[in-house]
Design brief:
The chain contains 27 helices and 17 strands. By secondary structure, it is an alpha+beta fold. It is globular, with a radius of gyration of 30 Å.
C-alpha cells in the first residue's frame, strides 16, 4: 500500500521520536535535555559504553556518531524492530491516534502525479540556475552582488533567473519531454480558456525556489528586475504541490540548522532569510508575501516553543506584529508562545547585517520581547488615562485580550499579568492624588496633585520594543534606582539590602547590577560617575525614562537636589515597601499555584489572606508620603 506524504508527515509530527525510541533505550541523564527535546543514549544498534546516540524531537531524527545509524521513526522501527515499512507506519499511526487510511487507488494515483510534478519543478529550478549564469543573467548577477550575496550563498539557495521571454522555460521543459498538462499543473505558465497560447509566468525576474518540509522544490518566488513590472515580487499560484498559507520559505533548511538553543526567527522576505543565513544565522524562515497564517504559526511551533517574529522598523512592520499577536493569542499554551523583535525604524534584517554585522542582529533577536509586552504596548501607547472611566476602559480591553486565550492556565496567568501591570501603571497616580511629597521645608510642591497617568507615545513605545525594553517601568522600582544615582550615599548605607532587592523590570535589574558593580569595585562614588557607568552599559535611555517617570509622579525627594534627610526617608519608605510587595507577590503566586493543584479550603483561605495583605499594603502606599512606610511624614491636604 502506498501512503501519502501528508499522512506520513502528520503521524511523524504527532509522535515525538524520543517517545518511540525511549521505550527501547535508557536516556543518559547528564547529556539529555528533555525540555529542549534533546536526548542521548548508548546506541541500540551497536555496543558502546558511552552515549553517542542522539535523538532530537524538533527534527524527528536520530543519529549515532559511533556507527553512523540515522533516520526517522519508520527507519528505526524497520532497522531495529525488523518491521516492514507498512507495519512501521501502522505502529506510529497507532501511537499518534490517527486511523490508517483506507486504500484509495485514486489518491495513490494523485500521489504519483505529484511526485512527477516535483521532477518537473526540479527541471525548472536547474533551468533558472543556468540562466542566471548565462549572458542574459548578467544584470541579475550584478544585482545580487550589490546586495552582498556571495556565489556560494546563491548556489546554496539555488537562486536563478527567468529570462525576459514568453516561452523560454516552456520550450525547455517541452524539449525534456514534459507535457503541457504537467507544465500547467506546476503553475509555471499562465493559461486558461481565454488565453490562446500559454506563456511563462515568470519573466525577467530573479528566482527563489520554495521548498517543502522535505527540501523538494514546490514553487517559486520571483523578484522583478525592471521597475515597470507590475509586481515587485511574484509567487507561484496555488497548485497540487503548493498552498501559500501552508508553507514557510526555508523551513527545511532552518529546521536542520537549528542549534541547541532551539531558536527560530521569522522575518518578512526571501532576501532577509538569505542575508541572515550568509551571516551565520541559519534558522530563519519567511511567509510568502502575506501575513502569517495559523498553519504557518503551527509550523513555527513545530520547530520552537518560542519562535521570534522579526519585523521591519516601520509602521507596516508594527502593524504586522500586531496582526501576528492577534492571530497567535487564542492559540498560545504552556511552552507555546511568540517573542517579537522590532527593528530600528526604516531598517530590515538585511540592512542591519550589512551595516552593523551579525552580532548586532543577534543582539536584537536576543532582546526580543514577549507577547504580553507587545499587547500591553499596543493598548497603552499614546493613551491618556486621566479619568476612572478611561482607566476602566483599558482594564476591560486587557481582560478581553486575556479571555481570548483558550488554554485555561495561560489565560489565568495573562489576566494576572495585566492586573499587576495596571496596578503598577495606575498606582502612583492614585497615590499622588491623595498625598504629595513635601520639600525640605515641609511644604507641598506646587502642582503636585496628579492629573492622571499618561501612557508612552507610539514612537516611544516602538523605540522601547526596538531596544528590547519593556516600555513601562514599575514606578516604585524606577524611583529606587533614581534615588540611588541622585544620592550615591544611599548605596553605601544600604549596599547589602539593595544588592538583594527584587525588581520585576529586567532593564532596572541590569541598571542596578551596573551600579552595584561600580561601587563594589570602587569605580564610582559620585553621581556623575554612576551616570557614566550607566551610559557605558548602554542604559542611558532607560535612565532617562526612569527619571521622567519619577518626575511626572512628583516624587521630588528622589530627584537631584533634594535634601539629604528627605531623600533618606523617602528611599527607606520605598525600599521597605518594595521588599514587602516582592515577598507578598511571590507568596501570592505560590498560593495561586497551590490552590490550582489542590483546591482545599485551607489553600483558599491562605490565598484570600495574601490578597488581603497586598490590598492593605497598596492602601498604605496610597495614604502616606512617597512609596512606603517608616519615618516619612504623611502628606496633608
Amino acid at each position: 500500500m502506498r501512503f501519502s506524504n501528508s499522512f506520513l508527515d502528520e503521524i511523524r509530527d504527532r509522535v515525538p521520536i524520543s517517545s518511540l525510541i525511549g521505550a527501547r533505550v535508557t536516556w543518559d541523564r547528564r547529556k539529555t535535555n528533555a525540555s529542549r527535546g534533546d536526548y542521548w543514549a548508548c546506541c541500540p544498534f551497536h555496543g558502546e559504553k558511552s552515549p553517542s546516540f542522539h535523538c532530537e524531537d524538533k527534527k524527528g531524527r536520530y543519529h549515532c556518531f559511533g556507527c553512523g545509524a540515522s533516520g526517522d521513526h519508520f527507519r528505526f522501527l524497520t532497522e531495529h524492530d525488523g518491521l516492514s515499512f507498512p507495519e512501521a507506519v501502522e505502529r506510529v499511526a497507532e501511537m499518534a491516534g490517527v486511523p490508517m487510511p483506507a486504500r484509495d487507488p485514486q489518491a495513490e494515483q494523485r500521489e504519483k502525479e505529484k511526485a512527477s510534478l516535483t521532477d518537473v519543478m526540479e527541471l525548472a529550478t536547474r533551468f533558472f540556475q543556468e540562466a542566471l549564469q548565462s549572458a542574459e543573467g548578467a544584470k541579475a548577477r550584478a544585482y545580487l552582488r550589490e546586495r552582498g550575496l556571495s556565489a556560494a550563498t546563491q548556489q546554496e539557495f539555488r537562486l536563478g533567473f527567468a529570462p525576459e521571454s514568453r516561452n523560454a522555460l516552456k520550450s525547455f521543459l517541452a524539449s525534456k519531454g514534459v507535457d503541457k498538462a504537467q507544465i500547467e499543473a506546476c503553475g509555471l505558465v499562465v493559461h486558461g480558456p481565454d488565453i490562446a497560447v500559454s506563456y511563462d509566468r515568470f519573466r525577467n525576474r530573479i528566482m527563489f525556489p520554495i521548498e517543502d518540509s522535505r527540501g523538494r522544490v514546490i514553487a517559486f518566488g520571483g523578484r522583478a528586475m525592471s521597475p515597470d513590472q507590475p509586481a515587485k515580487y511574484l509567487n507561484s499560484n496555488d497548485t497540487e504541490l503548493f498552498h501559500k498559507g501552508n508553507v514557510l520559505y526555508n523551513f527545511a533548511r532552518a529546521r536542520n540548522a537549528m542549534g541547541r538553543d532551539g531558536k527560530v526567527i521569522a522575518v518578512e522576505g526571501y532576501m532577509d532569510v538569505i542575508a541572515l543565513a550568509q551571516a551565520g544565522i541559519d534558522s530563519s524562515v519567511a511567509p510568502l508575501g502575506t501575513a502569517l497564517t495559523e498553519n504557518q504559526l503551527e509550523l513555527l511551533w513545530r520547530m520552537s516553543g518560542e519562535p521570534v517574529l522579526c519585523f521591519d522598523g516601520d509602521e507596516a512592520g508594527l502593524r504586522a506584529a500586531w496582526r501576528a499577536a492577534e492571530l497567535a493569542l487564542p492559540m498560545v499554551g504552556p511552552g507555546k508562545t511568540l517573542r517579537f523583535a522590532i527593528l530600528p525604524e526604516g531598517r530590515d534584517p538585511d540592512d542591519v547585517v550589512r551595516d552593523e554585522g551579525a552580532e548586532a542582529m543577534r543582539g536584537l533577536i536576543a532582546d526580543a520581547r514577549p507577547l504580553a509586552d507587545l499587547l500591553w504596548a499596543r493598548e497603552t501607547a499614546g493613551g491618556v488615562f486621566d479619568t476612572p472611566e478611561r482607566r476602566a476602559d483599558l482594564e476591560q480591553r486587557l481582560r478581553e485580550l486575556a479571555n481570548r486565550i483558550r488554554d485555561e492556565s495561560v489565560r489565568r496567568h495573562y489576566a494576572q499579568e495585566f492586573r499587576e501591570r495596571s496596578q503598577a501603571f495606575f498606582g502612583a497616580a492614585r497615590g499622588s492624588e491623595r498625598g504629595a511629597f513635601r520639600n525640605k521645608d515641609g511644604q507641598g510642591r506646587p502642582g503636585s496633585q496628579a492629573r492622571g497617568r499618561l501612557a508612552v507615545s507610539e514612537s516611544l513605545s516602538r523605540s522601547a520594543m526596538v531596544k528590547g525594553q519593556g516600555g513601562i517601568l514599575p514606578l516604585r522600582e524606577a524611583g529606587i534606582l533614581v534615588a540611588l544615582v541622585n544620592h550615591p550615599f544611599l548605596l553605601d548605607e544600604h549596599f547589602e539590602t539593595v544588592e538583594r532587592v527584587g525588581l520585576a523590570s529586567a532593564e532596572l535589574r541590569r541598571m542596578l547590577s551596573v551600579l552595584v558593580d561600580a561601587v563594589a569595585h570602587d569605580r564610582a562614588h559620585e553621581r556623575e560617575q554612576l551616570l557614566a557607568a550607566i551610559a557605558e552599559a548602554g542604559l542611558d535611555a532607560v535612565w532617562e525614562r526612569a527619571v521622567e517617570l519619577t518626575r511626572r509622579a512628583r516624587l521630588w525627594p528622589l530627584l537631584e537636589g533634594a535634601a539629604v534627610d528627605d531623600a533618606r526617608d523617602a528611599f527607606r519608605q520605598a525600599l521597605h515597601l518594595q521588599h514587602a510587595a516582592h515577598f507578598l507577590n511571590k507568596e501570592l503566586r505560590a498560593a495561586e499555584s497551590a490552590l490550582a493543584s489542590e483546591p482545599t479550603d485551607e489553600n483558599y483561605r491562605h490565598l484570600v489572606e495574601i490578597q488581603s495583605q497586598l490590598r492593605s499594603l497598596q492602601a498604605t502606599e496610597a495614604l502616606i508620603e512617597g512609596f512606603g512606610i517608616g519615618s516619612g511624614k504623611v502628606a496633608r491636604g
